Protein 1
Amino acid sequence: MIISRPQSGKVRTRRNWVMSFLVFLFLSAPWVVLPSGSPLIRLEIPHRMFHLFGGLFIPQEGLILWFFLLTMGLSLFFFTSVIGRVWCGWGCPQTIYTDFFDRIGRWILDSKYGKKDAPVHKKYLVYFLWMVVSFIASFHWIGYFVSPYEMAGDIASLTFFSKSYSYFIGFFTIAMFVDIGFIREQFCKYACPYARFQTILMDEHSWNVTYDYKRGEPRRDKKTQIGDCVSCNMCVVVCPTGIDIRDGLQVGCVACGKCVDACTSIMAKENKKTLIGYLSLDQIETRGKVKWIRPRSVVYALLLTIVISVATYKLITRVPMSMIAAANKSMPPTLLPDNKIRAFVAIRIQNISPKPAIYALEAFDTRHNKEMLVRSGEGEQLTLASGELRSFSVVIETQTLSESELKEKYIPGMIRLKNVNEPDLKIEKVLSLTIPGN
């Protein structure tokens, strides 16, 4: 376990603002309920529904999930190629909560934090506070799956431990305590997959935490100094993963910028510019500007724009309802005396709009352009609350068929579900009816 020295500076101040904002979003989002009554963000696994910014999504909408994952992947490629591991240093929960744990440790133990001779009772106080923070974070993480108001009510009524989600909160609390408290940024160095493929995504033009070896080398050797680096090793002392940024781009560098602030403070005493900063390798070699526009970044940006555009179009044109229709195999179609076909169809519909809706079913013979009669025990119209799923059976009956129509093997049909109040919102499913005896 590495406990790095704290370091103040411009980068540290900016990271504090960004991290505070991200923690605020994480802790507040599960509690937000929109005027429609739906949560801002919640993945209700038992009900197979995902609430997102007023929209309601279901597993059957796999294409939207695919676009979401593709957008996340391309965003990772694009931003890493342009500004390096900015996510690791500024937005990753591993980095943010490790920093928060360190603040607690230094608040209680001061200069004894991370040392073996620290007072035992104060160390256990630090562990207790770490566990409290881990519980709060885990509680809000599960709040993205279960209503935090419901969980808070269960805690107040002492029924919390009888709920299944309490086991998940307990697991994540212990996991976070061990991970953030003791594994820390070593997870980034040895286990995080993002660190492994960063070298593929970055190139010599990527803007990242970099050491200016042109100015710094050769480093000071005892009293002899040729380059600007004074060999103070402060960049190593403040590094949370214990690497030496002067050795070049490494898997262990999370781009937190602590070495930037450290070198800035040291070089200021020499009346010189910092040797470590947010630079690209090409900048160091050529002393030019960062090449933001280059083939790699353009390709990633173009692909990301296309995916976001298509995803936006799909969301705008999305019909907020779902229907599955299948012929009842245990009750095959029958031929009535008046040359009509009667078929039994199993229907499952779901309202995936943020408000209640009234629906009606229609059926058509698409080959002969005739409407078919739909009968249901649910009535002619069905009212479903937001997110409500309803399964039932309907009877579909054709019009009187001619002798030539009866000789056909099947009737190509279509069943339509439409919103009564908004007729433009409708979905259609193909449903063929087999003609008995053919």
Note: The chain has three domains: 10-200, 202-286, 321-434.
Protein 2
Amino acid sequence: MRSLVFAPVVASLCLAASVAQAAGFTLTSPTIKPGATLPDAQVYNQFGCHGGDTSPALKWSGAPQGTKSFALTLYDPDAPSGSGWWHWVVYDLPASTTELPADAGAAGGKALPASAKMGPNDFGEHAYGGACPPPGDKPHHYVFTVYALKTDKLDVPANASAALIGFMVHANQLGKTQLTARYGVKR
């Protein structure tokens, strides 16, 4: 009987410790400010949008103890797809990585650390795909998230979908930090 009561208490304490460790985990960008409009450099250059389609420089610090790798995503929860829109998926970033330069999301990933991989975005590319909401929609939210992971490599096949990569990221997450910006296209 004691172990039935004790197990949930231990689990709760472990979760609280995990959240406390991630409390100082922060994500910043020299070009994107929280809640601000994305610059044209981060806008897609197809589907009627005309931007630079360049991933922004990003920097993070304060990762939880025990971090063995990072994953990075850019997600639009407001996309009218029924499931949002994945704009960028990067995983297997070494634990020593604390920043990415602008255009690290270019096709081929030459500016990423050697072990890092890019999963497919919802444009069908293994690259960064900038903001491009439908004209006339209210401005969409673009959520950059860096996840601290307890594994140095995600166990996913080379052709894994963004959803499968996301599942494995969440299964291995120690903490996360986010930066959200907005973007809209006038009619």
Note: The radius of gyration is 18 Å.
Protein 3
Amino acid sequence: MAVKKKTTKVNNSSTNKNNSSMNKNNSSTNKNNSNTNNNSKTNKNNNSNNSLNNNLIKKKITSKKVLSKVKTSKLSKLNNSPKVNNKQRTNKSSESFDQRLSNCISKCHLFDDESNKQARVSKNYAFFRTEDEYQNSFQDILSFEKNLPEGLKDEIDVVMYNVDKEDGLMSAFIAFDYFRGKKELIYLPTKVSSHATILNYRLKGVESKIKGRTVFLVDLSFGKANYAFLSQHAKNVIIVDDHPFVNNDLKKYKNFYSFIGNDKHCATTYSYKFFFPKKDVPLDYIYIDDSDRKLMLPFLNRGVQRYLTTYNNFKFVHSPYLPNFTTTADFEKLQELINDVSFDYKCLVGKLYDEVCNNIKMQVAQNAVKKKFLGYTVYALNYNDPVLYKMVSREMFTLADKRGDKIDLVVLFGYEFTSNAYKVFVSERHTGKKPEYDLDQIVRQVGKFHPRGGKATQYIANFYYPRNKTHDIWDLFDDDKIKKN
């Protein structure tokens, strides 16, 4: 029995050992299970991260595909669009900015041309009531051209024109247009000089250019000394001017052929009919005529006329960026500014310039004061400039009306160091009717005191008045030397 008991104990001990071993195994199993669970969580997290990364990658791939499709689509459109050949690129690059802008604006039709029925003036104030009546009013210049010696017009070698005025420059341009491709001309820009006995120093400097040549003198009036100089040195002198004056001395020069208009047309349109007698005056030149002679033509658009005049004056007549027009190349450049841009472009640029001018003229005119000037009641202003003075003078009349002041004339003056004198501008209202005052009387009375003299035409007068021990501009104010008509 003792042996049995011992055996039993051994077996129990063995059993316990086995149980202990099983527990260890179970514990190990549990640990393994626990590790397995942890691995499972890790795997889930990894799977989740992998899934997220995969989605991002898919999105990137999709995004790239979309971009690729967009690029492909754009490329296909570009490939299908009409191709611009090198010739087209060259033509476009050769155009100036003004020409390219002009081409764009011309498609918009911003401004109406002569067919517009708005902004007209009454026919009662017009020199010519219809365009036909206007075009048929050049019989005097046509007769002059017809009676010239045969071939004399084509002998013109030199064009001498008024450099200060649109009228003079455009007259010279018409001569350029007539002789273009035929011969090279000499162009001499100069200024008016009406003194009877003093020779204009500008003429002295061009003696070699006019000697033995036929000169076309346009929009210029000179004194006796200057006409005698021209007659002496030039072969022939053809004069076309639009300012009537009593000067019988022209008839005594045998090599002079002179036409002086009667205030109904400007030198530009007279020049056009002289060189192109069988053609009607183009619209652009009619606008210049209407502005220069104050014709108040009822068949023109007043707004367009103002814009075109402003464009011409700022773009080339008074432009500080352009030299005086003295060569064929200069006038070819002028042709680009006139003909190579559209009607709408000129009107738009002119309108923008005009708005600036109106702003400035109103600010300047506000300084005008009511005074007596040689017996006339005037608005006076100490102001002188090469471009805006006429606009300022008209604004002074408007200002007087607003203030309730009744005036006869407006007077602008300014001292010029180069002339050692005051330059004086006098104007009455531009009504389209016959001038009310004899402005030439003013010029005769007070313009004689300075060598540069003066000139009156229609509604305006210009003269120089000296500043020395015996004369000053203030002598003319608050004085009754000249009485009103």
Note: DSSP finds 16 helices and eleven strands in the chain.
Protein 4
Amino acid sequence: MKKDPGTAETCNAMGDILNRIGDKWSVMIVGYLTHKTMRFNELRHAIGGISQRMLTLTLRNLERDGLVTRTVYPEIPPRVEYALTELGRTLTDPLDALWNWAAQHQQAVKEARYIYDTTHGVEEEDRPAERRYAGAVR
């Protein structure tokens, strides 16, 4: 039986999924794994600014959601690699589109914020802090 897209159950499921795939760390992990299979520390160093605990939790949740596979090789020391699943690969186009949109419109958003702040009398100290992704270059 197909679910009605307007039901509370469907909306809650959508919110849950969007929270997972829309968070900063998940987007970055999926972005890196789009290019190649990576080991834990390789991912951690590539992303920069992510704690070991946050990377562990995010990878575990992405694996739980069927977006990432974790492969443990019986070696000493153990080798663990992470890769996108076929389901995870379906995220690359939407995330690329979002990334490209942000890159194309960042100046317009900056200008809109300036106009809003000026019009509404928002002082510098009252503005939301600028959020930067780890590894972002100004």
Note: Confidence is low (pLDDT under 50) at residues 134-138.
